[in-house]
UniProtKB/TrEMBL annotation:
Gene3D superfamilies: 3.30.465.10, Uridine Diphospho-n-acetylenolpyruvylglucosamine Reductase, domain 2. PANTHER family: XANTHINE DEHYDROGENASE SUBUNIT C-RELATED. This is FAD binding domain-containing protein. It comes from the Bacteria. Residues 1-177 form the FAD-binding PCMH-type domain. It comes from Methylobacterium adhaesivum.
Amino acid sequence: MKPAPFAYERPGDLSALLARLADAPGRVKLMAGGQSLGPMLNLRLVEPDLVLDITGVPELRRAAIEGDTLVLGACVTHADIEDGRVPDVTKGAMARVASAIAYRPVRNRGTLGGSLVHADPAADWVTSLVALGAEVELASASGRRRLALDAFVTGALDVALAPGEMLVAVRIPGLGPGIAWGYVKHCSKIGEFAHAIGAVRLDPGAGHGRVVIGAVEGAPLLVPEARHLFGGRIGPDFADRFEAAAADALLREAGMTDAVARHVHVTVLARAVAQAATTLFAPTRTVSEAA
């Protein structure tokens, strides 16, 4: 199929983009890398009256470090992160996640902001950045606001954008000394959408951490205080203390009734925990498993 007819515009600065987004009549879609929007247009799953190409806005390619926080514009590509063309405060964690997204042609054009706004439950950034505690910066003609990513992603393909509002940047806190990080996903074959994702950010010294289970039917399942998955305590021996039964119960409570699906998710999460234990001593690569 081919897209339904639509108008196309490419604003050159953010103020013009936001003004056009506010006053454009009819249905409007923003396009960055187009890796999700393009197929949806071709299949006529979306039929906008106007497509606004945001790739001509310099501010949306911004990359900077503010204190211990990495700020990346919405149009930073997966390949920009993978190749180290932007700064990093995550000890290579984001580069490892980026390198496992789909295929290189997709990473060359796909964008960080586009992935988060599309909010596919199987998307790498949706789960990994929730685990890292990221925030999004949202802007409209009337002002700006920040929102925690786990509050921004409200469901499968659903986000908390108000009319006339867009995501302009993502704020990622750094991984400081003593922070353990693990990210594992399970795919039928390399490059395909994940069937299960596990991401953990643990601080054994402080005794707390975040655990996220992704590639579920809705928004990623966030366990903001994950001690009950580790026998009530997250210490240096957290990998040995991980309780698969507690994770399985969590998934049951979240509505996952298929025992096989729960087993796959728990296994992937356990491997993310095991990977996190190794990061306390030496860097590891993101694991992307093919069945």
